[in-house]
Amino acid sequence: MEERHLICIGCPVGCALTVKTEQGAVISVEGNTCKRGREYGEKEVTAPARTVTTTVTVTGGKIPAVSVRTRTDIPKEKIFDCIRALKGIQIPAPVHTGDIILADAAGTGVDVVATKTVELR
Amino acid sequence: MEAYDVVIIGGGPAGLAAAVAAKEHGIQKILILERDRELGGILNQCIHNGFGLHTFKEELTGPEYALRYIKKVQELDIEYRLNTMVADISPERVITALNREDGLLEIKAEAVILAMGCRERSRGALNIPGYRPAGIFSAGTAQRLVNMEGYLPGRKVVILGSGDIGLIMARRMTLEGAKVKAVAELMPYSGGLRRNIVQCLEDYGIPLKLSHTVVDIKGRERVEGVTLAKVDERGKPIPGTEEEYACDTLLLSVGLIPENEISGKMGVELNPVTSGPVVNESLETNIPGVFACGNVLHVHDLVDFVSQEAAAAGRFAADFIRNKKSFQENQEREEIRDSHEIRIISDGGVRYTIPSFIRPEYMEESLTIRFRVGRVYRDCYVCVYFDEKLVIRKKRLYAAPGEMEELILKKAQLMEYPALKQITIKIQEA
């Protein structure tokens, strides 16, 4: 049996979790104070994932860049692939909150969406 | 002179939530004055996720969180003016402001809500030796440059201070292709949220050097490197522990200071611990009809709590206008304070509380007391004494200066103690 000590990133409380695993399978999660913590603990030791946020260049807009996010979290090892896939993109203004900037980012099946509205200049 | 019921100074998260609450509590003429080009304040540059879990039960980015409130402000037809700088507020609540369209403005407000937020401590406050080359930024400035203006301030970075903005920027600069070599923290613990140490530093293998500080900055035109050294328990660098880091950029995340120049000038009493106004249960300052909320009152870690606090300020400002008759007489007001004021004393590890005193008759059903502790505690109790009597004893597994604490007092509970003079809040170790 293996034991891992984690800090839950599900919310700012930051519960100290103890996750016990047997041959890669989660046996127990302790220390969490909510459902989210249990889910985080299980996921973090089996398939860790993160939401990625960055900016993408906007042309012809009131501001030069628009903030974006992956709609849900994506596998942790895909973070830099996702960032690279967004690097060359230029989006013409206007862009609206929720617009899809990049569909199926880096083969994750998750879309990258705008988190801000950028009006035409 | 223009006249409004409530004028809110600042259109960031606090100002927006205060405006929405005041309007929802029946106040018609509300004006938000914002110095930037858009509403939303600091949220506009906080493009990372993690906002709104308490308020909206989902994880939003800063701009998304701001948009929820901006939409409410627009739906409620609340007036706002952008690019408008407030220069002065008189104790009679006449606001002097400037912008390009109106020139110089004078606005009379029945109630004022201070929601100006905070600013970053700068290099000047730190006494770091060395030259004054380009490449030294506060973390928040770098955040604005990267996230809003489309510039990358540097490629090889050292960050001093492990406040949340510094941690967030360590990840952000890394994702933008910069190499973040280390985050140095003077204290033996981080000033940021633990989740940010995990997801901003550990995820990217960025070392956090606790009990370390910058003792030298190299480079004349541009930063060429910094020297870090370990510090002793008193924060003094220990000779022989110096390490050189070649870098072109130093980011400073060394604390936030509530922006109270205007408040101080108008005679608002400030608390030296928070650098924010001293307020009562209504979040009202010593000047009747002047309220404060958000980071101008005390620096928060979480915008959700800013929104909650600001909504309370908006409700209390609305009450103030409704009850103006009984409030407006200074004389009468002083009598109320003298007879029914309960002081809240911070003791044994509690650095400050918001509010500083309570007038039970003005309380809502329950009151959230927010406070910070002075150091890291494990397995401690938050104890509340009504005069000498222990009435609340709550266990906390972990408490740290970087994470604001709160406890709830019920009005009914206070009413059981009509002769109550002071409430003491302290930390007891198990």
From TrEMBL, chain A:
The lineage of its organism: Bacteria, Bacillati, Bacillota, Clostridia, Lachnospirales. This is CxxC motif-containing protein. It holds the Pfam family DUF1667.
From TrEMBL, chain B:
The keyword Oxidoreductase applies. Residues 4-299 form the FAD/NAD(P)-binding domain. InterPro entries: FAD/NAD-bd_sf, FAD/NAD-binding_dom, Metab_Enz_Cyan_OpOx_G3PDH. Pfam families: Pyr_redox_2 (PF07992). Keywords: Oxidoreductase. SUPFAM superfamilies: FAD/NAD(P)-binding domain (SSF51905). PANTHER family: ANAEROBIC GLYCEROL-3-PHOSPHATE DEHYDROGENASE SUBUNIT B. This is NADPH-dependent 2,4-dienoyl-CoA reductase/sulfur reductase-like enzyme. It comes from Blautia caecimuris.
